[in-house]
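Cross-check.
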Amino acid sequence: MAGHLHSLDKVDADEVIREIEGHLHEVVDNAEERGEALDLAALLEGFGPPQALAAQYIEHLRQGTPPPAGFRVLRRVKQGVSRSLYWSMGVFGYSIAAGLLFLALAKLWSPDSTGVWSVAGGQSIVVAWAAQPPAEPELLGWWLLPVALALALGCAELTRRVMRVLRRGLM
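Predicted model, tokenized:
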């Protein structure tokens, strides 16, 4: 690739090479983090022929044209990461909200064994629906019901808003 950038001064050519290397390293790192096998040949083919990619960079640097479109592979990988983040955020946020709603319903069903306790001399807090609740006095009593419901609604709304922002980033 460096040989095809000879018409650029050395500083610009080195910057182009560093940018391409950075993109390649990012894709490889992302694939390794996800435990996926990466087809390097397909990744490199996605950039197109080195002469064409170099010509696009040269035109971009000299005339201000849009940067090379050879990064379709990278965009697909980043979009896949964004979709993963989108669905992971939804599952995580709505699961927390469902858990809090379940805690509120458990307080109605079994008030003596559901609650919030301070244990270990105040060093720990236990939130549980347990067959054998801790011996310490329960902290919230019936206030657990509105607190858990409010937190469940707040968590669900926050998740909805974050997912809406993430969805905009996917489009």
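Helices lie at 10-33, 40-45, 50-63, 72-109, 144-170. The chain is about 65% helix and 5% strand. Passed to J.P. for a second look.
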